[in-house]
Protein backbone atom coordinates (compact mmCIF):
# COMPACT_ATOMS: atom_id res chain seq x y z
CA UNK A 1 0.00 0.00 0.00
CA UNK A 2 1.37 3.43 -0.95
CA UNK A 3 1.06 6.03 1.75
CA UNK A 4 -0.68 9.33 1.09
CA UNK A 5 2.57 11.21 1.76
CA UNK A 6 4.45 9.06 -0.76
CA UNK A 7 1.76 9.48 -3.42
CA UNK A 8 1.76 13.22 -2.76
CA UNK A 9 5.55 13.34 -3.24
CA UNK A 10 5.32 11.45 -6.54
CA UNK A 11 2.61 13.85 -7.75
CA UNK A 12 4.72 16.87 -6.78
CA UNK A 13 7.73 15.42 -8.61
CA UNK A 14 5.63 14.86 -11.73
CA UNK A 15 4.39 18.45 -11.58
CA UNK A 16 7.95 19.75 -11.30
CA UNK A 17 9.01 17.72 -14.36
CA UNK A 18 6.28 19.45 -16.37
CA UNK A 19 8.09 22.75 -15.73
CA UNK A 20 10.90 21.44 -18.00
CA UNK A 21 13.82 22.25 -15.67
CA UNK A 22 17.35 22.49 -17.08
CA UNK A 23 18.81 20.88 -13.94
CA UNK A 24 17.52 17.77 -12.17
CA UNK A 25 18.81 16.92 -8.68
CA UNK A 26 17.65 13.45 -7.68
CA UNK A 27 18.30 11.67 -4.39
CA UNK A 28 18.14 7.89 -4.75
CA UNK A 29 15.71 7.84 -7.71
CA UNK A 30 16.05 4.06 -8.09
CA UNK A 31 15.47 3.25 -4.41
CA UNK A 32 12.70 0.70 -4.01
CA UNK A 33 12.51 -0.07 -7.74
CA UNK A 34 13.04 -3.47 -9.30
CA UNK A 35 16.07 -3.74 -11.60
CA UNK A 36 14.06 -3.45 -14.83
CA UNK A 37 12.23 -0.31 -13.72
CA UNK A 38 15.46 1.21 -12.36
CA UNK A 39 17.17 0.61 -15.70
CA UNK A 40 14.25 2.21 -17.58
CA UNK A 41 14.30 5.23 -15.28
CA UNK A 42 18.04 5.69 -15.73
CA UNK A 43 17.69 5.31 -19.51
CA UNK A 44 15.07 8.08 -19.43
CA UNK A 45 17.36 10.30 -17.34
CA UNK A 46 20.23 9.52 -19.71
CA UNK A 47 18.07 10.64 -22.63
CA UNK A 48 17.24 13.88 -20.81
CA UNK A 49 20.97 14.47 -20.24
CA UNK A 50 21.74 13.80 -23.90
CA UNK A 51 19.03 16.34 -24.72
CA UNK A 52 20.87 19.07 -22.86
CA UNK A 53 19.63 18.81 -19.29
CA UNK A 54 22.00 18.44 -16.38
CA UNK A 55 21.15 15.42 -14.23
CA UNK A 56 22.80 14.97 -10.83
CA UNK A 57 21.83 11.95 -8.77
CA UNK A 58 22.91 9.97 -5.75
CA UNK A 59 22.85 6.20 -5.91
CA UNK A 60 24.41 4.25 -3.07
CA UNK A 61 24.65 0.83 -4.71
CA UNK A 62 24.28 1.08 -8.49
CA UNK A 63 24.27 -2.13 -10.46
CA UNK A 64 27.03 -2.43 -13.04
CA UNK A 65 24.44 -1.88 -15.80
CA UNK A 66 23.43 1.44 -14.24
CA UNK A 67 27.00 2.47 -13.44
CA UNK A 68 28.06 2.46 -17.09
CA UNK A 69 25.20 4.83 -18.00
CA UNK A 70 26.80 7.75 -16.14
CA UNK A 71 29.07 10.23 -17.90
CA UNK A 72 30.91 11.19 -14.72
CA UNK A 73 30.94 9.66 -11.26
CA UNK A 74 32.10 10.71 -7.82
CA UNK A 75 32.87 7.90 -5.39
CA UNK A 76 32.76 8.87 -1.72
CA UNK A 77 34.19 7.02 1.27
CA UNK A 78 33.61 8.32 4.78
CA UNK A 79 32.51 11.66 3.33
CA UNK A 80 35.63 12.16 1.19
CA UNK A 81 35.94 11.92 -2.57
CA UNK A 82 38.15 8.99 -3.52
CA UNK A 83 37.42 9.08 -7.27
CA UNK A 84 36.04 11.57 -9.75
CA UNK A 85 35.99 10.88 -13.46
CA UNK A 86 34.48 8.83 -16.22
CA UNK A 87 32.56 5.71 -15.35
CA UNK A 88 34.30 3.81 -18.12
TrEMBL record:
It is a multi-pass membrane protein. GO terms for cellular component: membrane. The keyword Transmembrane applies. SUPFAM superfamilies: P-loop containing nucleoside triphosphate hydrolases. It is found in: Membrane. The keyword Repeat does not apply. Keywords: Hydrolase, Membrane, Transmembrane, Transmembrane helix, Transport. Coiled coil: none annotated. GO terms for molecular function: hydrolase activity. It comes from Helianthus annuus (Common sunflower). This is P-loop containing nucleoside triphosphate hydrolase.
